Amino acid sequence: MLLRRIARHLISIAALVLLGGLISATLVRLAPGFDTDERELDPSLNAESIRALHAERAGESNVLHFYAAYLRGALHGDLGTSHSLGQPVQNLLRERWPVTLRVAGIGLLLGWLLASTLAFGVRLSPRPAFEITGTTLSGTFLCIPAAVLALASVIFNSPGYLAIALIVFPKIYRYARNLLAKSYALPHITAARARGIGELRILIWHVLPVVGPQLIALGGITISIALGASIPVESLCGLPGIGQLAWQAALSRDLPLLVNLTILVTLVTLLANSSADVMIHILKPKQA
Amino acid sequence: MKAARLLACVIVVAVCALSLGARWLAPAGYAHQFREAADAPPSHQHLLGTDEVGRDRFARVLYGTRISLLLAPAAALVSTALAALVGGLARYLGGIWLKLARAFTDLFLSLPWLFLLITVRALLPLNVSPLTSVLITFLILGLLGWAQSARVLSTSADALRNSDFVLQARASGLHGPRLFLIHVLPNLKPVLYAQFWISIPVFILSEANLGVLGLGVAEPLPSWGSLLRELEGLISFREEPWRLVPLLLLIVVMTSFQILLSNEEVTA
Amino acid sequence: MIGRHTGLSRSNLSFRAPLGLSFRARRGISCTVALAFVLTLSAFAQTGGELHFCLRSEPKTFDPLLVDDDSSLSIRYLTGGVLARVNRHTQELEPELAESWKVSKDGKQITFKLRHGVHFSDGTPFAADDVAFTINRLMDPSVHSPVGDAFRTGAGTVAVKVLATDQVSITFPAAVVGLERQFDEVAIMSAHSPKKEAAVLGPFMVAEYKAGSSIRLEHNPYYWKKDSQGRRLPYLDAILIDIQPNRDVEMLRFKRGELDLINVLDTDYFDRLGSTSPQLVHDAGPSLDSDFMWFNQVATAPIPEYKRAWFRSANFRRAVSEAINRDDLARIVYNGHAQPAVGPVSPANRFWFNSKLKPEAHSPQAALERLKADGFHLQNGILLDKNGNPVEFSIVTNAGSKPRERMSVLIQEDLGKIGIKVNLVPLDFPSLMERILQKFNYEAAMLGFRNVDLDPNGQMNIWLSSAENHGWNPQQKAPATAWEAEIDKLMQAQASTSDLKKRKEAFDRVQEIVYEQAPFIYLINQNALSAVSSSVAGANPGILYPQTFWNAERLTLTGTATAKR
């Protein structure tokens, strides 16, 4: 049963990823300025050379042809070559994904740690310190632009993952705090308290089962948020990860690179969200 | 917390009043360039100094507040409504709708919307009035910002579908949209309010990033996003601390919003 | 006194300080001992070290013949060996791989006598057939080399003849203006080396390339140049170049001592850094670059007819030019590190600049008078044309250039004072290019011009009405106006003679016409600002690219502790 569910998820993931690649290729192709090249502004180039510049991109003008050729290549392990960097995409991805995994991964974990501590602290502790700290900190960091946080980490020589943690945590905190507040307001919690059950037991046995699935779903989302945050953080902190690559690709309308990056991001997002779904499904029977 | 709520209320009202009274508080206006005093520190005439082309920063903060504080919440409302629609309703309806909505949401999260935005800019006329540019900007933000919370809402709605009171309501004859509106939606409040509150500063900041594509608030209109972009060149905060005032103001206002909204999020 | 550098990675500042202290300690002991020590050092020590700076974008190619962007140009400059080099400081052409050359009277042929005993970076000997190979590849039409295009003044093939192992002659089908100076951009490639384009003749060679992040160059052990004492150049061991588009981060890293130079420094940072450490910043005076705006005059552009009529009127353009306060632009946006521009050539280009021309004086009244002549009139503070249409247009420019954004805001206000409503539309670069080069769906545009060539012949494709880069109305089948026809004639005239006096007369007249007709409204010429850390010795920042490291082979890194930043 579970295996069937997982298999269904994987099939739909594969289909969606392929669709995502095609849609993103179309978006890039249709956006204005696709077949322009900075070099056209160079007055030393003559007409022939400019025509040749346009001809370079001719292979990408038909999106369907391009995508079909790309998929054929991908089946053989060839993910295409980046225009702007002149290198095979698979080399670029292979070199860079560990950096992003490390930076975004640690950032995400730290963000969750901070947010959870504050959110659960609000519930478990009678003192208002957690609420005040949580409200102020999350309010502050939500309002600071990601680029400024990244610049601040360059100024203070702090690691990139800290910037990502600070970008991600306010969003987690707010959702988590609200979900917990709502769950605690449910009648059966009051009843449990009246029966004299301790706060910690209430948290683990009565609140978490209700709030858990939603927090897991939130976990899936935070992966996309962290990936998005890694773009400015990596670019400004000079970390050679996927985020830096994405920015470079977007600026130069590098179609092969962008298609691969979208597919990668879609895959990660879908896997994260599907895993969340599967986990929720596994945990569900435990609910009374 | 009552004192905190009162303080928050006072702050929000004060900021709104100040921004509405911009014409009297900062008669020079947001566009006038005091060219002899560009990049000046705070003084009697310019409470927060002037920006790099000599415009009074205090005036720009006041007028920018009008634009951002009015439109960012409006856009946040749009995105929250969309999230409720796609996430909550679809999950509630279940079946094929759920699958489609989930797929749609997940794809939406991963696609490079940058290129759609560039295309949108190309389709718009070059000479849109600043007001129109502002409205379009925030509308776009609202339309694109819903995906993150839709997912969480979908799971929340899932939990509610089989909960006691929904079953009870169904048993008493309530179906479809009415059931959704009366019983399910209010219980999605925690997530909806969180989404709403988070979206406001996110949209304010995103508006500045849209400026890079030609879609932000057009010059010379100020917005908090553009005021906050000034911070990017600030290597030594110690030298020009007054440039941090817009950021501090935004933080204070957002925190006040958070305090004011906190009660609403919990009541069922 | 030459300091001794440990040659360790630049990121760790602490290693340099103790070394500096120990030098001072020794000097405290005994002058003689110190002197002897220093003399010994300078005799035997190889001043090494790794120079560290940033490029703003990824180099698009490492093939020297295809170089067309700044970053690739920097790499080629540091790794490529050329026959003759324009000295960035004196602006004179100096022999490099060629000891001497002779240009024929008709300007069609050049004969080089090559240096002996030169080798590529992998040991392959350099000879005339390498030059022949390079030129043949350069002129190969299928390669589409931008440098080659500059030589392609006429139809026909280029004939390269190897006269001896150290003599080669190149014959072009038509005369090439400033022939010998063009060779500054032709990096000679090896005909025989198995390493192909990786075998170079310049002071450095590419050792490591991390796409999107950094490039590391190491000194070329076979580099032919020696200094006046017979020591092998370059003095540096290596150059580490990071790719960092963000200027704020670049500045931060420079202040922290991680970077040794900033080639093009923003005005804000120049002033900020200069107030605390004036010895680190350099203002080399007006550069060759300019910022300018223009109006769309394309006949088929998708803009309203009445707007096209405004843009095609020289009176309108001159009036806009008069209404703009260029002094404010220079003062406010560039803090005085710029000056009002006159035309396509900056006053820094001493020979070619038409010194009779002065920048357009700022006068809103004169502008309004001029507009009255075309039937415009002010009504309630709004300028209306003769048919009652309010004058309103948009200026597109590329987002991301802070000076240009600020200038456009100032211009918006200036034009507002004469009743013109200006809408500013910053766009991403590809969208901008599509509008100005392909679809022509824009009204006015603002861009900057980075001039690397002193000779105006390099601007041929801007001034010829049939050319791609004829900004306001490119690729005309026949000149649309009498003055454009005159410019065509004058540009052809200056290209067909090597008599400098005649060429200057022709191009002076082009500058006059451009001034009168204002197809491009030139705004300002910015100064060449740069920053060099105090640990770099031998730097002499100039205005020609690359401003700070044009003499990279003679730069050294001292071991003394850095001055307070």
Structural write-up:
The complex is a heterotrimer of chains A (288), B (268) and C (565). Chain A contains eleven helices and no strands. Chain A has helices at 2-30, 47-56, 63-75, 89-124, 129-143, 146-155, 160-184, 187-194, 199-237, 242-251, 255-283. The longest helix of chain A is centred in the C-terminal third of the chain and has 39 residues, at 199-237. The model of chain A has no long low-confidence stretch (mean pLDDT 85). By secondary structure, chain B is mainly alpha-helical. In chain B, 68% of the residues lie in helices and 0% in strands. Chain B contains twelve helices and no strands. In chain B, helix 3 runs parallel beside helix 6. The longest helix of chain B has 37 residues, at 57-93. Chain B is elongated, with a radius of gyration of 22 Å. Chain B starts with a helix and ends in a 6-residue tail after the last helix. The relative contact order of chain B is 0.15. The mean pLDDT of chain B is 82. Chain C has 565 residues and is an alpha+beta fold. Chain C has 17 helices and 22 strands. In chain C, strands 11, 12, 13, 14, 17, 18, 19 and 20 form an eight-stranded mixed beta sheet that branches. Chain C has a four-stranded mixed beta sheet with strand order 1-10-9-8, with helices on one face. A four-stranded antiparallel beta sheet of chain C has the order 4-5-7-6, with helices on one face. The radius of gyration of chain C is 26 Å and the shape is globular. Mean pLDDT of chain C is 86; it is low at 1-29, 42-46 and 560-565. The interface between A and B is large, with 59 and 56 residues.
Any key phrases for this structure?
heterotrimer; A: 288 residues; B: 268 residues; mainly alpha; 12 helices; elongated
Given as residue ranges, the uncertain stretches of chain B (5+ residues, pLDDT < 50) are none
For the largest interface in this structure, which chains are involved and how many residues does each contribute?
A: A-B, 59 and 56 residues
User: How much helix is in the residues of chain A?
Assistant: over 70%
Total E-strand runs of chain A:
0
Secondary structure layout plus pairing:
The complex is a heterotrimer of chains A (288), B (268) and C (565).
Chain A: H1 2-30, H2 47-56, H3 63-75, H4 89-124, H5 129-143, H6 146-155, H7 160-184, H8 187-194, H9 199-237, H10 242-251, H11 255-283
Helix pairs in contact in A: 1-11, 4-5, 4-7, 4-9, 5-7, 6-7, 6-9, 7-9, 8-9, 9-10, 9-11, 10-11
Chain B: H1 2-20, H2 22-25, H3 57-93, H4 95-110, H5 113-123, H6 130-144, H7 147-161, H8 164-171, H9 176-187, H10 189-210, H11 224-229, H12 245-262
Helix pairs in contact in B: 1-3, 1-12, 3-4, 3-6, 3-7, 3-9, 3-10, 4-7, 6-10, 10-12
Chain C: H1 16-29, H2 31-44, E1 50-55, H3 70-79, E2 84-86, E3 93-95, E4 98-103, E5 109-114, H4 128-139, H5 146-151, E6 159-164, E7 167-171, H6 179-182, E8 204-210, E9 214-219, E10 238-243, H7 247-255, E11 261-262, H8 267-276, E12 281-286, E13 290-295, H9 305-311, H10 314-323, H11 326-333, E14 338-340, H12 364-373, E15 377-379, E16 382-384, E17 392-398, H13 402-416, E18 421-427, H14 429-439, E19 444-449, H15 460-463, H16 482-495, H17 500-517, E20 520-532, E21 536-537, E22 556-557
Parallel strand pairs in C: 1-10, 17-18, 17-19
Antiparallel strand pairs in C: 2-3, 4-5, 5-7, 6-7, 8-9, 9-10, 11-20, 12-20, 13-19, 13-20, 14-20, 15-16, 21-22
Helix pairs in contact in C: 1-2, 10-12, 16-17
